[in-house]
Amino acid sequence: MKKWLENIRRVEPYVPGEQPKDTDVIKLNTNENPYPPAPQVLEAAKSMDMNLLKLYPDPAASKLVDALAEAHGVGSAQIFPGVGSDDVLSMIFLTFFNSDKPVLFPDITYSFYSVWASVYGIPYECPALDSDFRIRAEDYYRENGGVVIANPNAPTSIYEGLDFIEDILRHNEDSVVVVDEAYIDFAGGPSAIELLPEYENLIVVRTFSKSRSMAGLRIGYAVAGEELIRALNDVKYSVNSYTLNKPAIELGAAAVKSTEYYEEITRRVVATRERAAKELAELGFECLPSGTNFLFAKHRTVPGERIFKELRDAGIYVRHFDAPRIDDYLRITVGTDEQMDKLTAFLKKYA
Ligand SMILES: *Cc1c(COP(=O)(O)O)cnc(C)c1O
Q: Rounded to the nearest 5°, which phi and psi values hold at 190?
């Protein structure tokens, strides 16, 4: 008997979207940006002194943190950087959710939240989205150990305005409220960062993986009041001090300063999204109103899983979730116009 097996922590892991080896496929399954990082980022990569990789990186990632603080008009002590926002969110769960009361997040949202809660032994409850897949603010009026809201939400793609976020904040003065803004740059509405001066219990999480087209470098960050950021840093330095590597710090800082380029590619993604949504509607799909770089779409008659598999066989990868209420939906990342044309051409057979 291998007695030690009894002591292993058992978890049901998060399942990331597939990263196919074959580069010929049309990859619309993990919400990456179809455009390259900014020219300034590619320049910074070329001029990096790789000999310096013999040294540890700056544990505070100050160059990146200072650039982000300036861009958001906050102090550097209000920014917490991490290895993708997944790392930042994981630290947030570990740092702030130490109550016996359940942490609240919607039943349909980023599926990593329940995985972190489980691995850290945090109790949680998941109020159901309404029949239009909207979050009901009233479900978050009760006592809890914390609140996590993705806005825009994933995979529903729906963005709620600041009134909605503020409603949740006003009813949760005794909890840390996390707003995950992975897709905010595509939303066409304001960010909860505007609310930070009024709410010391608010923490906003951002990523470089989507609108900044740098998923491969793994950069994310949180913006909050100094007290929350200090607590996060205390936990981070107790787990792993050197999180961001030197290239991430350098190239991340260059990306923050390339605002115009990113605004331009974001406009392009949004224009392609609107065009694709219209075409999908003509082909018999219903799309939820998207404030993100993806469309959450369901065919009126053909099951989602069937379309998912047939697309995959044709070399077009989208995401399908085998979960209650959403198993007839496909989550389709907005690619280039050319990629979307290939997708809609294939989908004509279901019209
Ligand atoms: C993509 C995504 C993340 C994680 O992004 P990384 O920064 O790449 O770790 C977090 N939250 C939501 C809602 C996302 O869609």
A: -70, 160
pTM of the full structure: 0.97
Burial class (CB in 10 A: 0-12, 13-18, 19+), 3: exposed
For ligand 1, is residue 215 a contact (CB within 6 Å)? yes
> Does ligand 1 have an atom closer than 6 angstroms to the CB of 294?
no
85 lines ligand 1 (CB under 6 A): yes
| Token couple for 203 | 């923490």
Answer yes or no: are the C-beta atoms of 127 and 113 closer than 8 Å: no
- One-letter amino acid identity for 178? V
Nearest residue (CA) to ligand 1, atom 14: 182
Atom of ligand 1 nearest to the CA of 183: 15
Average pLDDT, integer, range 21-48: 95
Taking only the tens place, the pLDDT of each residue in 243-281 is: 999 999 999 999 999 999 999 999 999 999 999 999 999
**Cβ atoms within 10 Å of 83's Cβ, excluding its own:** 18
Asked whether the beta carbons of 151 and 181 are under 8 A apart, the reply is yes
β-pairing, 202-207 vs 294-299, is: unpaired
Q: Identify the pLDDT of residue 118.
A: 95
Residue bearing the CA closest to ligand 1, atom 15: 182
**117 pLDDT higher than 90:** yes
